[in-house]
Specification:
This protein has helices at residues 5-25, 33-39, 43-47, 53-56, 64-85, 87-108, 119-137, 140-155, 162-192, and strands spanning 41-42, 114-115. The protein has 198 residues and is an all-alpha fold. The chain is elongated.
Length: 198
């Protein structure tokens, strides 16, 4: 598997932000609440003008284990998506999925909730890959079931932001549905010529 350049940039950006968090916190292992409230997402602050937290929160992590897991999966899955669909789709997926997840967090979690992490964006990447695979394999129902199982397993633990996961996964699935159909059409036309209209 080739490692996409944008994937590496996103990983590096997340790591750089985490190191900045750790510097401000004076602790590499855990980030203190004040730093998370400033760089992450606090719904009350967003509703009172700190709209930029909807963006910065998708690069902020609460601890070393948190960022280690997220960056491992971003490196693996982001590279797959970038190799298949290109860097523009990865960029669109990361930001749009992360933003959608953060907006659901804003509307459905209490005002003083602190939210941080790339999980919404990562679930978007997963959604694209699962749905595109379902389109290419001719089994969308199986793809939807797999996406639901993945969401359920990763969203049942205490402290996990299920709304961010859900928003990211739904957004990624829509992108994957569109790009999967487009890829299937191109593959068909390359082999057989004209693609039959549904």
């Amino acid at each position: 598997m080739r490692h996409g350049r944008l994937t590496l940039v996103l990983v590096a950006l997340n790591v750089a932000v985490y190191l900045f968090e750790a510097f401000l916190s004076g602790n590499l292992i855990w980030i203190n609440t004040a730093v998370l409230a400033t760089l992450g997402q606090v719904n009350y602050y967003v509703l009172n003008g700190a709209w930029w937290q909807l963006i910065t929160a998708m690069f902020v992590h609460v601890g070393l284990i948190h960022i280690a897991f997220n960056m491992f999966f971003l490196y693996q899955l982001g590279s797959q998506l970038e190799n298949i669909f290109g860097w523009r789709i990865l960029l669109l997926t990361y930001f749009l999925s992360g933003l959608t997840g953060n907006l659901l967090t804003l509307f459905f979690l209490p005002p003083y909730t602190i939210s941080a992490g790339a999980s919404g964006a990562l679930f978007g990447v997963v959604g694209v890959l699962i749905m595109a695979t379902g389109i290419l394999g001719g089994n969308i129902a199986s793809a939807v079931l797999n996406a639901f199982i993945l969401f359920a397993i990763n969203s049942i633990f205490p402290g996990v932001n299920a709304y961010a996961h859900l928003g990211g996964l739904l957004t990624g699935s829509v992108i994957g549905l569109y790009k999967g159909r487009e890829l299937k059409r191109r593959m068909f036309e390359r082999i057989y010529g004209d693609y039959p209209e549904p």
